[in-house]
User: Which sequence fits this backbone?
């Protein structure tokens, strides 16, 4: 019997982690599970962060003060996705957008639907469309997507970071 | 060449599991403490450098998030090493020596509790020939310990002595994680994790962060505190191929001892970055340290925050010199399996 000669072998690489969001983000996610968007404010420069990470990256200090924001905002930036991504259940074309909630100083990535793709633009007013309450968990996926409100656009200059 | 001094150092209480707290939340307190000690703000810092390992967090570029712990507006000069923060200190020393900065802020952080540390460490070995075999950190250390025992360099008794001395000393460090000294019976009867090492021989899984500020003579003069000078610092690395190394000795450590001219210094103590009991008698022999006090802070066996513990050896040496009659301390940092890479730092108290 001759032994088969191999000049390579496959070694699987995987490590599992128990990921933790951080104390501040944990507080945020627990509120999201109740349908509330609770931002955190820098005690020094007053910048409002949502989702909060627990610190103001400009000042390097903890953002302890919390304030609830509405689920309305404006499109700060967007892209229309035409190419399907393996494993992604959303059917293209769809809109990925940076949403700036009213009262926030940073934006976060979410979807925009219930819209004519030709209409999407920076400054467009949008509002969250929530899943049914029975499906809520500690995730921003509680919001299915954002949809246009039909209100007048905001001036894109409002997106400039406060000095 | 400019003389460089340590101006401040802070360490978080070391915990086995920091729970929900993330890295930013671990870093912020120590950075604020070193600013408090010096009266500096980020605006007084010429260069900022951190040490961490993305594999500990399990996310690419995780170290960037760590920057949220410090003030970055107005923009700062910043760098990072995917290593222990002792090497972030080394980079900072070079920056100051090159005249690019007068002061530097260094921080290191590690949260080992979320993953399986012995295997996470495997990914720091050579990715082509070594890590696909998944040798874990404890087994690699055990290989070296067994070799040293076979060669008669050290015994299990030496290891027990190193352990009890370290843990007894841990009472000097309010941030230490392990303070209960085991009995010899408990030690000798403990199950092996990897022969000849039991859990007692291994530094505990730890979460935490540490920070340090260094600066030039002008910077330390303003503080009106004892001047602790970095009189010598060198590092060297051996091959990543275990077969190419003689694990029964350490060319790196012996060479560094010569480079730093240890023979000419009357040391008062040494703080060694020893993550396994056997490494203490091993390095004691390699550097010919005789009966010198080693790890008066308890060292990594009493709490071992990955990517900060090497900086802690230097920081604890600084604290000892500052708060005692000692004049000369030796600090050691290491990286990689079986003490592959090492750094020696000679710290000296300068009397005006």
Assistant:
């Amino acid at each position: 019997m001759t032994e088969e000669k191999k000049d390579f072998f496959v070694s699987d690489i995987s490590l599992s982690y128990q990921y933790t969001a951080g104390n501040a983000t944990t507080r945020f996610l627990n509120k999201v599970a109740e349908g509330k968007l609770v931002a955190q404010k820098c005690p020094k420069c007053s910048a409002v962060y949502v989702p909060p990470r627990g610190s103001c990256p400009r000042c390097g200090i903890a953002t302890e003060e919390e304030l609830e924001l509405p689920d309305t905002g404006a499109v700060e930036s967007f892209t229309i996705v035409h190419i399907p991504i393996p494993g992604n259940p959303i059917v293209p074309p769809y809109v990925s957008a940076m949403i700036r909630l009213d009262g926030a100083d940073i934006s976060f990535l979410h979807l925009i639907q219930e819209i004519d793709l030709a209409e999407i633009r920076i400054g467009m007013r949008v509002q969250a469309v929530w899943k049914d309450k029975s499906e809520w968990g500690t995730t921003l996926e509680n919001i299915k997507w954002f949809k246009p409100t039909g209100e007048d656009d905001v001036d894109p200059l409002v997106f400039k970071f406060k000095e | 060449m400019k003389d460089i001094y340590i101006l401040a150092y802070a360490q978080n209480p070391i915990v086995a599991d920091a729970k929900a707290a993330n890295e930013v939340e671990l870093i912020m307190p120590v950075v604020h403490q070193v600013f408090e000690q010096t009266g500096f703000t980020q605006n007084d810092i010429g260069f900022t450098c951190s040490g961490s390992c993305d594999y500990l967090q399990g996310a690419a570029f995780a170290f960037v998030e760590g920057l949220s712990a410090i003030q970055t507006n107005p923009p700062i000069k910043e760098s990072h090493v995917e290593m222990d923060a002792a090497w972030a200190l080394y980079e900072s020393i070079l920056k100051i020596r090159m005249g690019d900065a007068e002061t530097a802020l260094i921080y290191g952080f590690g949260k080992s509790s979320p993953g399986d540390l012995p295997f996470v460490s495997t990914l720091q070995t050579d990715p082509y020939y070594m890590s696909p075999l998944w040798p874990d950190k404890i087994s690699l250390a055990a290989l070296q310990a067994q070799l040293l025992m076979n060669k008669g360099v050290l015994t299990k008794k030496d290891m027990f002595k190193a352990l009890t001395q370290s843990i007894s000393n841990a009472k000097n460090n309010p941030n230490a994680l392990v303070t209960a000294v085991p009995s010899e019976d408990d030690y000798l009867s403990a199950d092996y994790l990897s022969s000849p090492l039991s859990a007692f021989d291994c530094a505990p899984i730890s979460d935490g962060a540490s920070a340090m500020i260094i600066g030039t003579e002008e910077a330390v003069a303003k503080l009106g505190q004892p001047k602790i000078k970095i009189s010598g610092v060198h590092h060297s690395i051996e091959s990543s191929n275990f077969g190419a190394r003689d694990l029964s000795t350490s060319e790196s450590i012996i060479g560094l001892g010569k480079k730093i001219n240890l023979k000419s210094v009357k040391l008062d103590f040494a703080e060694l970055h020893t993550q396994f009991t056997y490494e203490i008698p091993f390095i004691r022999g390699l550097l010919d340290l005789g009966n010198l006090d080693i790890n008066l802070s308890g060292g990594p066996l009493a709490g071992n925050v990955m990517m900060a513990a090497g900086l802690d050896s230097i920081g604890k040496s600084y604290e000892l010199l500052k708060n005692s009659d000692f004049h000369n301390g030796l600090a050691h940092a290491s990286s990689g399996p079986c003490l592959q890479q090492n750094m020696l730092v000679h710290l000296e108290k300068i009397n005006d």
